[in-house]
Design goal:
The structure is a homodimer. The first copy, chain A, is of the alpha/beta class. Chain A has helices at 6-10, 15-18, 23-41, 49-54, 60-68, 82-93, 108-114, 117-121, 152-158, 170-182, 211-221, and strands at 46-47, 80-81, 99-104, 124-131, 140-141, 144-148, 163-166, 187-190, 203-206. The radius of gyration of chain A is 20 Å and the shape is globular.
Amino acid sequence: MNQLPIRRRRHARFRAVTNHISDSTVHRLSKYYRTLSMVQSKGVKTISSDSLALQNGVTAAQVRKDLSCFGAFGRRGLGYSVADLKKNIGKIMGLGRTWKVALVGVGNVGRALLDYDQFRLQGFQITLAFDADPTKIGRDFHGITVRDAANLADEVNREAVDIAVIAVPSDYAQATVDKLVAGGVRAILNFAPINITAPNGVFVRHENMAIEIEALAFALTNPDLAKGD
Amino acid sequence: MNQLPIRRRRHARFRAVTNHISDSTVHRLSKYYRTLSMVQSKGVKTISSDSLALQNGVTAAQVRKDLSCFGAFGRRGLGYSVADLKKNIGKIMGLGRTWKVALVGVGNVGRALLDYDQFRLQGFQITLAFDADPTKIGRDFHGITVRDAANLADEVNREAVDIAVIAVPSDYAQATVDKLVAGGVRAILNFAPINITAPNGVFVRHENMAIEIEALAFALTNPDLAKGD
């Protein structure tokens, strides 16, 4: 299976416009991967797009469309091989390998992330943690010794960090990004509730843990308009 | 302004099919609300759909389409009144009021949520916390005394909890949902990495803090296919 869609090679000059995969598709691929891991652990060998769809609250047509972005994985009427599909989605998503992650900010959210199974299970290994608070520097949390954030750029550079997770107060978020970028980090996950900017070529994603509870407030306020579960 | 779209009243019998607002729209409304709060705090009085779009990484057409689901808020060429639009989105979303929230599971994630500003700021007040661990029951975390999860159904019922947040190990998630439903809770935010089911009329949302870091792994693996920031 070829990881790059044929369209990209045919129309390489349109790459930037035509070949972006939407956030929603990427998120759904993550969910399919998780479903496949789960059914695989139960010994299931093949899965239909209907079943994959049902377990993820989408239509079978959506599942087929998402997977078709990357090539044809299944055979009509036979469903997908769980092992193959998991391997292929894993390759596409960059899962099934280890990523070196640095955490900046060892407050409540940061400490929860240091011990968050879902990071470890998916290959995201937080091996460095930084804070600016002198009472935290040098202390151990979940086996990681907190380093001085003053040396952030140098240390992420020396340690060849793949992904940085920012869990600092909002006022420090942009300065933290700037140091990470100076240190060569190309992927940043921001938990601070503020928009941050980074140069082209650096990927930034925002995590807002309040967004789903707000969706519940919407559902309770407009039960007829919200999707049930 | 009328909160319910005209279409709903005209075709009430199609309500369940035609009037669901997509998750993506609801999430974007949350983001617009946050942007409006931010610009309002800086003294900005009016905002264009272009500006609202730019600050949220979407197109102006998308902003206008999202807002048009609920009625016409702005006037062509004049932009939106920040105060009015914020008030209207707040009404739609059920923000700008207080929701009574119960937390179940006072581990690392639960404790981070007890101290999570973005819940409090948006009106989500965690006033009850539960755990099954005898070493945690009776202890205070961030001013909340942990109650015995054995009494969950009775206590959420007596306290008229609006929304429950589940941060228990996966194996206990479904049993926790069942107790919450028995106690009359109609909205559940699940942090456990497992699918849970609830009867019709109970809204369930899943929060997976790994989904955005997986999107970063995708971006690093396929820099040409991912959207930059």
